[in-house]
Amino acid sequence: MPPFNLVSGSATLVLAASLFQQAAAQSAANSEATTSTVISSIVLNLIIFAILFTIFVLARPRFKRVYAPRTYLVTKEEQIEPLPQSLFGWLPVWLKTPTTTILEKSGLDSYMFIEYLEMMLWIFVPIWLLSWIVLMPVYGAGTTGTGTGFNRFILSRVGKSPQQQKRYVAPLLIQWIFTFWLMWNVRSRMSKFIKLRQQFLVSPEHANTAQAKTVLITGIPNELCSEKKLRSIYSQLPGGVAKIWLNRNLKELPDLYDEREKWVNKLEGAETSLIKTAYKLVKKGKAEDNSGSLPGADVEINAEVADQYVPKKKRPTHKLGKIPCMGEKVDTIHWCREEIARLNKEIERMRSEINVDYKNYPPQSSAFILFNTQIAAHMAAKAVAHHEPYRMTNRYVEAHPDDVVWANMNMNPYERKIRTLIGWAITIGLIVFWAVPVAFVGIVSNIKGLANNDTVPFLGWLNSIPNVVVGIIQGILPTVLLAVLNMLLPIFLRLLSRLSGTPTRSAIELDLQGRFAAFQIVQNFLFLTLISGNAGQIAQFVTQVGQNPANFPGLLAEAIPKGSLFFLSFIALTGLSGAASLFAQVAGLAVYYVKKFLLASTPRKVWHIDHDTGAPAWGTLFPQMTLITVIGIGYVVIAPIVNIFVVFTFFLFYLGYKYLFLYVYDNKPAGETSGLFFGKAIRHLFAGLYVEMVMLTAIFFLAQSEDANGGNRMQSAIPEGAFMIILIVIVMGFHYFLNDSFKELETALPLTLTAGNSTEGQLQGNFTRTSGETAYTEKRHINAQGSPDETPGAGVNGLQPHGVNGAGVGSAEKHQSAGGLTPEQEQAFFHPSLTGEQKPIWLPNDKFGIGRAGVASARKAGLDATYEHTSVTEKGQVETDAYEPPGEPLV
């Protein structure tokens, strides 16, 4: 839908326009207030930057958990050497660390994000210098146009005399240079990305993994939903099929499995709460400490030892009603044990039924296929599998069990199409109606203009306060409000992607990237350009566009220069405060200690608080950079003062994210897309370039010269406009050939790289990081005292993996030997409810023996439980030194 339809068709925009229909327009000639606004914003953000960076410098050596978790919390292969502990001795070591270390330790997605930031620096630094040398004098020296302060250096500052109108040649020349420089950099980086991706795919560490050879296929028709038929189809590919996992309709089994997880967590919390209550009562003298008479660790403790310390009225309880605080009141510990035992039996019964009953638990429309060769998996993903529409059309190569959204696995293709259509309709609707809050942000950015208008008397008090305060209100508050709005958007957009039926988390993030980038370009660039600095003309603008939509490019072209000051404030906040917050990690530091204080209630929660590491949300991170890129491209010629802000913003982000990807973020291999987010970000860059070129073309064609008396107007920049049309055609041609050259290579595995497994066709690279087969590798368990060991190769309650798919045990053994799969690999792509054992109940080993007694009682009830690798301090705080929490192998 064209932008002018989005604007003119929105009743909310008309409502917003009525708020400042009578407001006086703030012209470029009266720009001292807006200039002070930008200066106030810069000064304040410099102060914030200094404070946050000081916090980082002082806190970094003391809080390794927050500022350097990758030095010890990740696997040995992915760990990085710690930085020196001195206040500033770490700087040269960090700055000298090559960015290729990110590629080796954190994966291609992380590295390509840094590459994107580096590319922006390569693009904008030379253009910043060139535009200041050429355009700043052209716009600011000896012109008769209106505007002071920062507005002396915008395109609209060029006067109307025929002589001054000749200055339009300068922005045309810079635009051509900038465009060709941008295209060269894009072509160069895309070529590098494709080589790195291919290098990653064929590296032995990745190519030999099961993940590299597995394809997820959805939309399989019922008549082909059997292992035998799928094998007959895909065995035609090189090497044949090693293993097939069919997804089945498991009815209520997943709900029972999730319910068991819920009650296990609740039982752990209740038992730990009981122990903490005992410590408090002993400390207050309300209970006697009998820990000295406790028997040895190898002697079973009385199950009711807790009664010596905690009276029954203080034991944990809860009510069974579905409505909170309603229903029968029960003892939480006793009730949870009984409920978990019941669920264990119910889950075992259902698994036994599923093993033999294919009528009530039929295969559904998706399957995972593991091939014997990597090239076969890529060929299966590219090949048209079915002769009818919408059958087996969605295929996902490099499938990983930790990346699967199981709730979306069995959706038929028609339902998925309808859901996707509805999801995008809602997304487009949000782009339209989000104009209401964004319009409010634009109004606040020009609230001084409203205060000077008699029609809005309640804002008159703003005229009596200092300009610095008004500058903060206009410069800081709008950008903060905009940031809050952008925090809410991805939550809903990600939900739309998930509800559309996307079956993997990485695919959801890729879909989110497209939706959120559309918002950034349309709302946070185009719409804010119209609103900011043009309050008094908005109603007239809407009326003109509604009467003649063809006027939209010209009107937007006139609005763009006037909106530059708002974006200066926006980029200052984003670059200075945003980049400093990357280093300071104030929120992460606060959240960690708040969690330790409020949520460290069980050994499992303590372990996760101490060991879980953060990771980037690619679906929102790349669009945030896209917005800054589009703003920079949009104003590179029209308001060259913006260029220096863009350069320093990207530079600070480059430094900040380089530190985070080296020492903080742990991008899990299960979600690795091998750089696909980078390719989408490049395509979004062109949207900003097209908008900027069209607006500049409109400015040239609308430019008119006037004689000294203000008469005899005539078009003065027709040649410049014509040359811009030629440039647009060149860019369109480049864009086409760029996609034609690289689009397929982004997701393909070329035969030339795999033929005969020859190393001659493979690129040279250093990939020490594997694809992270968390569900395929051997699992290390904490040996719980008295708990039965898992029998290698055994199915869940006797359930053989191929029995679930409809093949016999003999078939399973045959394919295991053919594919060389371990028992863990055999079960990798079954729904967790089919293979997951009851998570061991993990209780603290306290000095009173309450935890040990709880473990003994749980085992008597037939539950798996342990108290190993835990302890409780004298203050009642739970601690653990476990390598991994029981029942949760490291991923």
Automatic annotation (TrEMBL):
The keyword Transport applies. GO terms for molecular function: calcium-activated cation channel activity. It comes from the Eukaryota. It holds the Pfam family RSN1_7TM. Residues 783-821, 868-891 are annotated as: Disordered. Residues 213-408 form the CSC1/OSCA1-like cytosolic domain. The chain crosses the membrane at residues 35-59, 119-139, 168-186, 421-445, 465-489, 565-594, 615-638, 644-665, 685-705, 717-738. Residues 333-360 form a coiled coil. Belongs to the CSC1 (TC 1.A.17) family. This is DUF221-domain-containing protein. It comes from Kalmanozyma brasiliensis (strain GHG001) (Yeast).
